[in-house]
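Table 4 source record.
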Amino acid sequence: MKLHLLWLALVFIAVQTNAAKQGKNATIPALIVFGDSIMDTGNNNRLPTLLKCNFPPYGKDFPGGLATGRFSDGRVPSDLIAEKLGLAKSLPAFMNPNLKPQDLLKGVTFASGGTGYDPLTAKIMSVISVWDQLTYFKQYISTIKQHFGEKKAQDILDHSFFVVCSSSNDLAHTFLAQSHKYDRTSYANFLADSAVKFVRELHKLGAKKIGVFSAVPVGCVPLQRTVFGGLFTRGCVKPLNNMAKQFNARLSPALESLDKELDGIILYIDVYDTLFDMIQHPSKYGFEVADRGCCGTGALSISYMCNSLNPFTCSNSSAYIFWDSYHPTERAYQVIVDNLLDKYLSKIY
């Protein structure tokens, strides 16, 4: 009898160990992402927009050195979160024409570089608005139902992690076009209210576990520092950062309220403080350069201005927080994801 009980105990331990090895992702079948260039893995490649990056030196640190349409030297947060969840090392772009139904099962990103919560942002940049991304999401769910059945589609809706990341382009660019209608505070509030509306719509479509990224200190990106930060000082642009903080101050309690109102989990993910601290104290995180990008001169280079003809691109991108004049390097993204995701992911299992 004792041997029988011992055998059962050993079997139980083996099962538990195997479950631990599989990781928590057993309960999260897919990662579904909406937003802008922070999360775009190639959706802009075939769009009639100037905001593209499917050419070298973009992707120089991506596996195989491929320029896939990610606005970085390597992978972006949608990839890193997918890896953190144990799903895949990279997340496919929904607009990739080579995607097969099987490729959709672990999730996709609908994110489009240059977009925002304000519909005008996508119009100005000729990219996919976050609202149109919801339309593509409906297509995605329809395809899953068609190929894998209603039950699988429901499993994805009920248990996947949905991530929303936008606002930088609205704050940095579209505000100027909208300044006849809004002051800085009211525009930031309008964007936060739009983000909440987006989450409501996403929840109506069946999403149950939704994480929404805060605005980032957009006044500290190299391009903004170059244009508005003073000719010699190139400091962070305080009015822009204050708008981002106002957006966050409006968004955070609104999402907390929404979390109580709706079934499922609605998370506010604060990335502002971590990135700001990295920019202010780069050496603390193992970086050497925080005020300019690796690509080109690092002051203004972005998209087509960051190209293989530019002789000034750095050789060691991991020493830089920013890859081009707007977007972080893969290593900076990794630091952010590692710092934040464990804290937030524990809430969605």
